[in-house]
Amino acid sequence: MQSQDVAQRHATASAQSAGPVDVEQAEAVLVEHYSRLVRIAYLVLPPDLGRSRRVLTAHALAQRALPTGRRGGQPAIPAQASAEEGDPGYAFLRERVLRAALEAARPHKGLPRLSQLPPLLPQVWGLRLFPRSGGADELALDQRLSALPGPARAAYVLRGLEKLSDPEIRALLTAAGVADAGDALASANGVPTQPALLSSPEFDPCLLQARPTDLMRRRQHTKAALAAAAALAVCGALVALPGGGWGPDGAAAPVYAENPAAEAALDPARLVRVTPTDWRSAARSDFSVWPARGTLTEDSALLRRALAVWARPGPTVHVSATPGTETGGPAGPPQLLYAGRVDNARVVILYDGLRIVRYAEPADGTQGAALDLARVDGATGTEASALVLGRSDGNVRYLTAPWVTKAASRDLTKPDSAATPLKVTDGVTAPLAGSVLQPGRCTSWTVLQLTGSPGTELASDLGELVPAHLTAGRPGSVGEASGSEGLHAWASFACSLAAERSGGVRSVNAWTFADQPLPDGSGSASWVCARAETWRGDGTGALALFGLPGRSASAVVAKGTDARSCGPRDPHALAGVLWKSSAGHWYLLAAGDEDTASIRATGGVTASGQGPLLVARAKRGARADLKGTLQDGRTVSGLH
Q1: Whether 621 contacts 589, CB under 8 Å
Q2: Which terminus of the chain faces fewer neighbouring Cβ atoms within 10 Å, N or C?
Q3: How many helices (H) and strands (E) does the chain have?
């Protein structure tokens, strides 16, 4: 909790004279806020360093921020007579880190400065370190920050991560050596502020993944053999890349070891291919019966690059994986599902029985690639009906299962509107509007509607490879959300699906568990519980939503993670909300499902009542704990 309040405390503390800060205090501040200072450095450093070097350089800059000085002697950190931060020690270290990171991002003439050289310390031998991969939102933000100059990146980070005002940012950038802080702020204004993404693991250089470096060269025992191996690697690169284009393995890292089984798994000729009619006689409807589609299924060079990058992603490859998904290479030859051009990229989709892997490289031949992995073990029927092929300009293209006969797009916020048919060519849909990454206020939510065996179903893109299957109904007897009842259940809280993006969500069910008359007679409110199941099993989420009559969107009033509520193991719900009537009176409204015999509120509001509904007068800001008793005598707690 303390780390979450750091930026707010520093930015909002009143200006006052700060006393001298000595080196010992600076060291204590550095230890306390080390991860935050390293994150700032990582975000401001130039992206062309590569993620592994950026990580080590960010740590080096944070550690160098500690000034030299003798313990017990004259303070090395000057007093800040008009400090705007509540902690002058943190402000001083932050300025030093920022100055060094901006210096590293500044083009140099002549000899480079210390911050522009690879760090001497810390050093890691035999491993490449980089932050955990995030979802599509993090990737999009990283790309937009990469296009900004260093000072603009710094301004964006100070605003979104440190919660500083524009005058504070301008003063700090000027103190850090930025010539035109106003221009930096203006450039940063072009990127929407997303503080939650800046705090995500994608940009945390203290939460790292590790991959080996070139293991073969490390086995050499003499300097001569090392030099020969290096020379051979250089010569091979020159032969393979005569014009700066792709080598046979593309953006893959060097081969780790000679392993016949691993080599067989990476041989394009051994890819599993299914004929277009196999699914008709198959016992299961899953990804294993999908045929290979696309115009590049015979491009052996492309397939080889995709397989090599999957096994050994190089430093120019952006890797993302849904939570709980292993990122290692295939254990045997995977199945080819698609190879073709999608918008401005060449895309390959593979399946190894447990995971879907999408490889994408620029169609113009420029360097760099993306590798996305998603866990799909146990996917059958509706869960194996579509995959995301690509996203471009706010639109999404899907690859559909061979049993899908029709595809359409539907605005989930308008249940009475008809679906819009989508053209499908060789299993690939025409682009439809993506909702999960839409900027600004949510006013619509477009989902994919698929018709085929066994019926009509809805799926929503949540920023991952596999769209989430949408259902509706009481736990234990859920049905497809494509019917009239399901569409109306989803309509008022469709935009709440944004809370589940990039979470490895398998399916989301909407259950309208109560309707409650409002105490002022203005109509009835609806209570909905939305439960998201994940591919990995844990991390399930349950949302309690409160919808008012005449309102197009519901409010999320409670959220639980790894909660059993609203699920098949505990098909019950209880939630409450403080509601203000048109006359200005505040009420506690609480509701349970039809099996609730009574509800009791304690804490800031004391009340009880028989039945599944409770209404009590309350004061603004009151907090109450809810307990419900089921008809069989068991108790349930309010979702929170």
Answers
A1: no
A2: N
A3: 16, 29
**β-sheet with 635-637: strand ranges across:** 607-610, 596-603, 624-630, 635-637
Backbone angles phi, psi at 167, to 5 degrees: -60, -40
572 to 494, 541, 596: CA distances (angstroms): 21, 14, 8
Report CA Rg, the chain.
28
How far, in Å, are 231, 237, 304, 569 from residue 242 at the CA level?
17, 8, 19, 61
Residue 514's beta-bridge partner residues?
527
pLDDT in tens, 165-174: 999 999 999 9
Q: Residue 226 corresponds to which tokens in the numbers above?
A: 């090392």
Which residue type, as a one-letter code, is found at position 247? G
pLDDT in tens, 199-241: 887 888 887 776 666 554 455 444 545 555 554 454 444 434 4
Cis, bond preceding 475 (omega within 30 deg of 0)? no
Rounded to the nearest 5°, which phi and psi values hold at 294? Answer: 110, 160
pTM for this predicted structure? 0.62
State which of 67-81, 104-118, 148-162, 529-543 shows the largest mean pLDDT.
148-162
Confidence bin at 256 (pLDDT 50/70/90): very low
Residue 293 in contact with residue 426, Cβ under 8 Å?
A: yes
Bond from prior residue into 454 cis (ω within 30 degrees of 0): yes
Q: Where are the beta strands (DSSP E) in 235-342?
A: 317-321, 335-342
Q: Which helix (H) or strand (E) holds 44?
A: helix 34-44
Q: Is the pLDDT of residue 112 over 80?
A: no
Query: What is the full DSSP assignment across 370-396?
Result: EEEEEE-TT--GGGGSEEEEEEETTEE
Query: 11 near 165, Cβ under 8 Å?
Result: yes
Identify whether the C-beta of residue 97 lies closer than 8 Å to the C-beta of residue 85: no
Beta bridge partners of 347: 340, 360
pLDDT at residue number 132: 72
pLDDT at 10: 37
Tokens linked to 172: 């700090």
CA 176/CA 633 separation, integer angstroms: 65
Counting Cα atoms < 13 Å in the Cβ hemisphere of 64 gives 19
Q: pLDDT tens across 529-586, in order?
A: 999 999 988 878 888 889 888 776 678 888 877 778 888 888 999 999 999 998 899 9
72 by DSSP, 3-state: which? coil
Angstrom CA distances, 591 to 580, 601, 611, stand at 17, 11, 9
Average pLDDT of every residue of the chain:
81
Q: Quick one: which H or E segment has residue 92?
A: helix 88-105
Distance in angstroms (rounded) separating the CA atoms of residues 515 and 350:
46
3-state secondary structure of 310: helix
d(CA 635, CA 640): 16
- Residues 511, 514, 515, 518: is their CA dihedral positive or negative? negative
Round to whole Å and give the CA distance between 400 and 583: 52
Encoding tokens for residue 317?
A: 């490859």
Mean pLDDT of 88-107: 84
DSSP string of 204-263?
-TTSEEEEE--HHHHT--SHHHHHHHHHHHHHHHHHH-TTS---TTTTBPPP----HHHH
Token pair for residue 449?
A: 């509607």
Tokens of 543: 């949302």
Contact call for residues 254 and 214 (beta carbons, < 8 A): yes
Contact criterion met (CB below 8 Å) for 350 and 357: yes
| Phi/psi of residue 544, nearest 5 degrees | -105, 125
